[in-house]
Amino acid sequence: MKKAEQTRQFIIEKTAPIFNMKGYAGTSLSDMTEATGLTKGSIYGNFEDKDAVALAAFDYNARKVQEVMRREMDKHDTIREKLLVYIHVYENFEKFPFPQGGCPLLNTTVDADDTHPELKTRVAGVVQGMKDRLTGLIEEGKRRGEFRQDLHAEQAALTLIATIEGFVMLSRLKSRVHDLKLVTRSIEEMIRKF
């Protein structure tokens, strides 16, 4: 890796947790310079502007989540077990190399809702990729005979995403452990009924 690429990567790695915790609007240039130890000129010498840093930071955080999911899924043989990984990782995210600040999809979706169209588009792309992966897994489960043949794969995938992200939202609100366990059980039951 060339020095410029190393510097860019360093900036991304150091600012990604800040963007994930404080959001786009809440992250200031001074937050970025403090986290990296670099000057404004160094940061903007490697990135066009704050938007470019935010997009790269989101991509970095999203990749971290995808890598955790892939690694954990690879430990299982059945499609059902692979789908259950989603809830178990989110339920115990502190045990995994998860982005600081929690789920970047939920955090960034809320943060970029109407204030940052390009970031919102980037999040939508990641959610679409997640939906496509889950739909493919569910279709594979149907082919293997693990799931009902009448199961609508895309609908099931979207329901899983929405329910898991709702679980993440409740956990961020520091909901009662009992409430979170109820949601966990509901997701597990849903997957077991596929």
Can you describe what's shown?
The protein has 194 residues and is mainly α. It has one domain (54-192): Tetracycline Repressor, domain 2 (Orthogonal Bundle). Helix content is 77%, strand content 0%. It contains nine helices and no strands. Helix 4 (50-73) runs parallel beside helix 7 and helix 6 (104-112) packs antiparallel against helix 7 (117-144). Keywords: DNA-binding, Transcription, Transcription regulation. It comes from Dinghuibacter silviterrae. This is TetR family transcriptional regulator.
Strand and helix layout:
Layout: H1 3-26, H2 29-36, H3 40-46, H4 50-73, H5 79-91, H6 104-112, H7 117-144, H8 153-172, H9 177-192
List keywords for this structure.
194 residues, mainly alpha, Tetracycline Repressor, domain 2, 9 helices, 77% helix, elongated, DNA binding, transcription, HTH_TetR
Biggest sheet statistics = none
Helix content estimate: over 70%
Would you report the number of β strands? Answer: 0
- Mind telling me the CATH class? Mainly Alpha
Provide mean pLDDT, rounded: 91
- The helix/strand class is mainly alpha
Ranges with pLDDT <50 over ≥5 residues? none
User: Under CATH, the topology is which?
Assistant: Tetracycline Repressor, domain 2
Using only C-alpha atoms, the radius of gyration works out to: 18 Å
